[in-house]
Write a structure and sequence with these properties.
With 512 residues, the chain is mostly helical. The chain folds into two domains: 194 residues, Fumarase C, Chain B, domain 1 (Orthogonal Bundle); 201 residues, Fumarase/aspartase (Central domain) (Fumarase C, Chain A, domain 2, Up-down Bundle). The chain contains 20 helices and nine strands. A three-stranded antiparallel sheet has the order 4-6-7. The two termini are 26 Å apart.
Amino acid sequence: MVILTGKTLTLDEVKQVVFKKESVSLSTGAMTKVLENRYTVEAMLTEKKTMYGINTGFGKFSDVIIEDEDLDELQLNLIHSHACGVGEAFHENISRAMLLLRANALSQGHSGVRPVLIEQLINFINAGIHPVIPEQGSLGASGDLAPLSHLALALLGEGEVYYQGERIETRYVLQEEDLPPLTLKAKEGLALINGTQAMTAVGVITYLEVEKLLHQSEYVAAMTLEGLQGIIDAFDQDLHQVRGHQEQMDVAERIRHILSDSKLTTRQGEQRVQDAYSLRCIPQVLGACWQSALYAKEKLEIEMNAVTDNPLIFSEADKIISGGNFHGQPIAFAMDFIKLGIAETANISERRIERLVNPQLNDLPPFLSPNPGLESGAMIMQYSAASLVSENKTLAHPASVDSIPSSANQEDHVSMGTIAARHALQMLQNTRIVVAIELICAMQAVEYRGIERMASATGKLYEKARRIVPSITKDRVFSTDIEKLTDWLKNCEASDVRENILKGRGEAYERS
């Protein structure tokens, strides 16, 4: 059970709720805070104080005063009018993460909602009811208005949800679960949609996947080093310590331990003096990729426990303040930065694929073909990898440098943070395919060298991956192999790839 306080949610807890379907509840302390701030909202309504979005219109309509009898309708109209999302729906996991993050943000109490609203979010999580939320339509300031409006629709019994593997109208699911639809009161519609939970949810899911893929890419790169009889000296501890980047040192340490008992790596001068950069500079490049990921992690962990709607209620000071915590710039920058690391993980992986298949760059069979000429082997796998790498370079363009005014220029600077997060996730999916292709090629190369000479760690990876994709003994439809191995990399636990490594030397894993 994950207990929401509004301030203490961790990435591991998000992982447990989203992927392991852990249940959620609201802490007693948070409930007290929520009630206190709701009383403040209702008291100020009684006093006829003017409060943005509570008894006024929204955006450019903020100067329009709303009559008391229309306050509830105002909130419902807000949800209906703002549910303008377009495009494909977010994956169900992202929808679940959005429910969790919104419930956590509201749990701090500063949004002024009733406890019943947070309870509805939690009921959806615990019952596995996940709103169908279109991916496109958010500018990333004034919050993720369109996506969160679709989330809110489901709480009201409208729209569609994913439930028990089906996409179905929400009203039928609420009947099945005996859950009454929520009726919005003053402030509550605005509190639901004024926030950064779409971009943050996509960002968190992306980070968790990037973390796993970076570890996997290190293992695959280590196997490629064996397939190409790479020079292990380039990973020497002294070499990396004098530069001083911790993530670079960590990657080098992990590669050294992964390959500690390999008989396929070489020493400086045995076959060549230096390897190409895509082999020699693995710690420098992947270390920098880790830096971009860890920066994003830091900002996401803050945003997961942030109050990001407007206006905010501070009952202890008896005040309601209009501000701009909904602006997604911190997450927009973070997701644009992590995109660089994702792009370069794929980029350097594709360059290693080229070195594995190009007969001018190695002494392996051309394109790893079992019958060169008659059979093309891995030739076109490299094409596919190159295509994905090029696509990533386009997607890596920073979304956060763009801004388009909205709401009659009242909202004249926006973050495009949700676009940045969506592109990061798309790039992650492309990069996983590239790493899968490298693994297919690396396995073929080490077979040529002699799998009995592999390191214990890469040998275990080889055994597990070979259960998914058999050896290339003749040409076949390799698209199927790539898809199967990509799915395996996505779904396997990180421990499946890094099992039994760094026994008693876990510092580098703890740091990353």
